[in-house]
Amino acid sequence: MRGQPRPVYLNGEWCDTETARVSVFDRGYLFGDGVYEVIPAFAGRLFGLDEHMARLSRSLEAIGMAEPLGRDEWQAIFDRLLAGIDAPDAAIYLQVTRGAPAKRDHAWPGNDVPAGVMATVSPIGSIAGGARVITCPDARWARCDIKSINLLPNTMARQQAAEQGCDEAVLVRDGLVMEGAATNLFAVIGGRLVTAPTGPRLLAGITRGLLLDLVHREQLIEAEESFITVSALREADEVFLTSSTKDLWPVVEIDGEPVGSGAHAGRAGPITRRLDHHFQALKHPQRSSQ
Ligand code: PDD
């Protein structure tokens, strides 16, 4: 089910999700040669826009691509996309590929080949209940900080989770927890909030960064950026995932075992709920100031 057609910006033209067509030579399609962003809008207002655009610039630079559009041009596209969707909360998906030269060749085309630029929008649905996750080996490459459209290992891990009736796969490298297939991971261990440090082995999630800033600014809990072993993860008091479309998503089960102990075993823990409360206020400043 594809639902109602939604607007699509594609290489300078406007079309919709039914009519948009890309070239078979687009290097995104042939090689996964491109980068992307997912930018949420809550109550019609883009959230973390500067951070998402800064990460897009970093990703483009890392793969040797120039900025295809200026910030005002992106903004005009986002405004038109958001005007074209009837949903309180929506996610803009944008991707930039290394264009569609006439010949398939691994080496990059010259600068005369324009980048492929696509942006569309979809509703963000609400999440029901906590996440059940599996742990699995991280089969990705050595530059997971680039938000590359190459997501085959991520999709394989997520599929493995889905086949086990779970929501997310937690990727483990050398016994250390990196992140989820499409989320960052936080744990509460001994009263401290712990998440993996950014670097080439994981994506610097915008939600992760905004949450850490909030935690420091409002002194909500001691926070530490260090790698967590899988055994420490299993012993953690609370675990949650973060992403632009899922906010803070409590993890209730890891490899079939409940997270936490006592009254909160297998349920969202009190610190997760408190942090989420503060995060919701950050998302909806107009509500909290009323
Ligand atoms: N995924 N880690 C990975 C591997 C991700 O793909 C994502 C986001 C995150 C969280 O990042 P952020 O807080 O900036 O959304 C972490 C997006 C939502 C996706 O691919 O749909």
From TrEMBL:
MF terms (GO), sorted A to Z: transaminase activity
Descriptive protein name: Aminotransferase class IV
PROSITE patterns named in the record: AA_TRANSFER_CLASS_4
Residues of the signal peptide: none
PANTHER family tied to this protein: AMINO-ACID AMINOTRANSFERASE (PTHR42743), D-ALANINE AMINOTRANSFERASE (PTHR42743:SF10)
Cofactor(s) named in the record: pyridoxal 5'-phosphate
Organism: Guyparkeria halophila
Pfam families assigned: Aminotran_4 (PF01063)
The family this protein is said to belong to: Belongs to the class-IV pyridoxal-phosphate-dependent aminotransferase family.
Highest taxon, organism lineage: Bacteria
Gene3D superfamilies: 3.30.470.10, D-amino Acid Aminotransferase, subunit A, domain 2
Keywords: Aminotransferase, Pyridoxal phosphate, Transferase
